[in-house]
Amino acid sequence: MIKKALCIGNANYPGRNALKNPANDATDLANKLDILGFSCMVLTDADAKTMDEALQDFASSLCGAEVGLFFYAGHGMQIEGDNYLTAINSDFRTERNAKFSSLRLDKIIDILEKGDNATSIIILDACRDNPFEHLWGRGSKALGLAPVYAPKGTIIAFATSPGEIALDGTGSNGLFTGALLQHIDKQNVTIEDLFKRVRNTVSAATSGKQTSWEHTSLMGDFYFNLSSITGDYVAQYSSQAKADSRFRLTTGPLKEIIDGLKSHSWYGQNPPGSIHP
Predict the structure, then answer these.
(1) Fewest CB within 10 angstroms: 56, 87, 141, 149, which?
(2) Same domain for 264 and 128?
(3) What is the pLDDT of residues 31-42, one digit of tens each?
């Protein structure tokens, strides 16, 4: 299966707007995805032009792919109901400037929808409090990210519920991404169940103050780590395994013990009528 991913983490914003975790989030998730069979592009502390160019490269890479995954950690914002992912050089002097110097989420959704990939995964750890909103004189109703439409075959995961803000982690990763890293490589877990586990971990860590959220239109089951026991069976065996299969105990105390264990059953140990409550 051909799986492609683009992971972006922007932390080095100017002055006091810098963040601690996003660059680590993107790098650490890309490392996990690489182990899980994804071909990953990683971008950290990127300006708007570099982000747009990387997105175009990612769009090209989806040719022939079956799964496409986009991850972003950094400052995110909603303007007039649309979501934007900011670059380290985004111009926040006005809402208009901020829109045209950031990456619009709808553009990412459109690229994934029009790619060859049947499964599209978008993960956004981008709902932190926007420190630039006070410049625009808006109220708290515009906090966090807005709900979005997920086309068929798409799941979009947010670090927190629409209109809410997310908390940074205390370690090297954001709280949401840290929970994702903890669970993503568990075997035989569907992506929906994975994000339920992430949600429970985030909720427990914040005493219920933060609830991660997904919008999904997936048509089938997707697993990041599907074990071979649920899929392909082993068709060839080593010479050692074949030799083991021919080994038989014929005499000795060990054979007597094993034969005795094989003969035990519930009714042999507890005949009818002898069972007491």
Answers:
(1) 141
(2) no
(3) 999 999 999 999
User: What is the rounded distance in angstroms from the CA atom of residue 11 to the CA atom of residue 169?
Assistant: 13
Domain shared by 40 and 125, yes or no:
yes
Q: How confident is the model at residue 95 (pLDDT cuts 50, 70, 90)?
A: confident
pLDDT tens readout for residues 160-194:
876 666 666 678 999 999 999 999 999 999 999 99
Q: What pTM does this model have?
A: 0.78
Contact in structure between 111 and 58 (CB atoms under 8 Å): yes
Compute CA distances 249 → 9, 25, 110, 138, 245, whole Å.
Answer: 60, 55, 65, 80, 12
* Domain co-membership, 9 together with 107: yes
Provide the percentage of residues in the chain whose pLDDT is more than 70: 72
Residue numbers of the domain that contains 259: 234-269
> Alpha-carbon torsion 113, 116, 121, 122, what sign?
negative
Pairing of strands 82-86, 76-79: antiparallel
Q: Are 43 and 27 in contact (CB under 8 A)?
A: no
* CA–CA distance, 177 with 149 (Å, rounded to integer): 22
- Whose CA is closest to 269, among 277, 261, 54, 191? 261
Q: Who wins on pLDDT, 128 or 96? A: 96
What's the CA gap between 185 and 58, in Å, rounded? 23
Q: Look over the chain and give the mean of its residue pLDDT values, rounded to a whole number.
A: 82
Interatomic CA distance for residues 196 and 194, integer angstroms: 5
